[in-house]
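Note to self: the last two entries modelled the partners one at a time, which told us nothing about the interface. This time every component goes in together.
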Amino acid sequence: AQTVTQSQPEMSVQEAETVTLSCTYDTSESDYYLFWYKQPPSRQMILVIRQEAYKQQNATENRFSVNFQKAAKSFSLKISDSQLGDAAMYFCAYRSAMAGGGADGLTFGKGTHLIIQP
Amino acid sequence: EAGVAQSPRYKIIEKRQSVAFWCNPISGHATLYWYQQILGQGPKLLIQFQNNGVVDDSQLPKDRFSAERLKGVDSTLKIQPAKLEDSAVYLCASSSKGASGTSYEQYFGPGTRLTVT
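The predicted structure of the combined assembly is written out below.
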């Protein structure tokens, strides 16, 4: 079974600064997807960014980028120019691309609470 | 495009009572997921449907939890009887699949917060 570990329960950053959230995962599979989701107090899970394991190039979405190290099984999220609206829980998630029968539910980490200091 | 709808948003029940949650996925999405999110943890998959068939229910506590998606559209998750440890947010998500069978992004609903006293 796959596991996802987020070792930072809480992170704090000054507005306009850059912050990096860490995530490691364990899997024996070679083909999979990795995601970062944002969950504000409203509880709505919002996809921030996704990375296909077969792609060497790190994904970027505006101020959000990832550092994907497949050999190290590491998948960190960098948020540049932090804004007050970025404050939320951030979850790292894994999805198999090889599961039989089409099973492709997400495996989540425990999350990192990101605080933005004005 | 309307998002994933869930109801109720909040529910408080006593232990040993029954409760049901409803989810309506995004129109056209064949795949539907139920997740349980206990306070302080990430969501955990309970069950995945493809149309009206179950794809994965390996983490569903089948002695007390049941779920159905009879017409391949909306879905109901039931707990009977509830225990204190069932207090959690129950999230529903849906996704579509491409011609190759690859799933696209999972879209989540706002969740139902269940408190069992």
